[in-house]
Amino acid sequence: MKWKVLFFSLLGINSLVMALLLFYMFQSSPSPYISNVNVEGPTFTVQTSKQHLNALVNDYIQKHEKKGGLSYNVQLADRLYITSAIPIFGKPVDLTMAFDPRVDENGHVVLAHPTMTFGQLRLPVPYVLTYINKHASLPNWVKIDAKRERIYIVVSNIRIKEGLVLKAKTFDLNKNDITFTVTITK
């Protein structure tokens, strides 16, 4: 008789944990508000390559990573890849996300058409983006829209130096053509 009580208690605890896990997984994140920045002043064009931008982005990530947060790495190749390892039962499992970057009319980089895998398992994109939005140490210029399955890099919010505003012009990984404009506002 005692084993039945223990069995159903354990079953109830497991059911509660699974229900809570599913509840939080299916919660959507709010759509990000992205402002348009129209600035005037002398404008310069800066062109870079995938290799140089890889080094710059990963150096930034490493310097601004929060302790205890989800760590990640960015790699520009045929697509933009974001990789991380999430510990499951004490063993790291690879999380890989791939995006097609493009530039919108406001000079923001939009990461679209995502594919996401956890180990060898393909994951539903909105739930992963919601998880990342809640747990990763993202800079304030990265906005995640889990409902539309997009990540916005609000390039104009990246603070290089006071009085400089950055906008993306082209982001073509196949041609290795990555161009930004820098406008001096003061």
Account of the 3D structure:
This protein is α+β, with helices and mostly antiparallel strands. It is about 25% helix and about 40% strand. The strands form two sheets. Strands 2, 3, 4, 5, 6, 7 and 8 form a seven-stranded antiparallel β-sheet that branches. It has a three-stranded antiparallel β-sheet with strand order 1-10-9. The chain is elongated and about 80 Å long.
Outline the fold blueprint:
Elements: H1 2-25, E1 43-48, H2 50-64, E2 72-76, E3 80-88, E4 91-103, E5 109-118, E6 121-122, H3 125-135, E7 142-145, E8 150-153, E9 164-172, E10 177-184
Average predicted confidence as pLDDT: 84
Report the portion of residues in β strands: 35-45%
> How many distinct beta strands?
10
Q: From N to C, what is the helix and strand string?
A: HEHEEEEEHEEEE
The Rg value, from CA coordinates, equals 20 Å
Distance between the termini: 80 Å
Shape: elongated
How many helices? The count is: 3
How many strands, what sense, and barrel or not for the largest sheet?
7 strands, antiparallel
Low-confidence stretches: none
Helix content: 25-40%
Q: Tell me the structural class.
A: alpha+beta
Which terms summarize this structure?
single chain; 186 residues; alpha+beta; seven-stranded antiparallel beta sheet; three-stranded antiparallel beta sheet
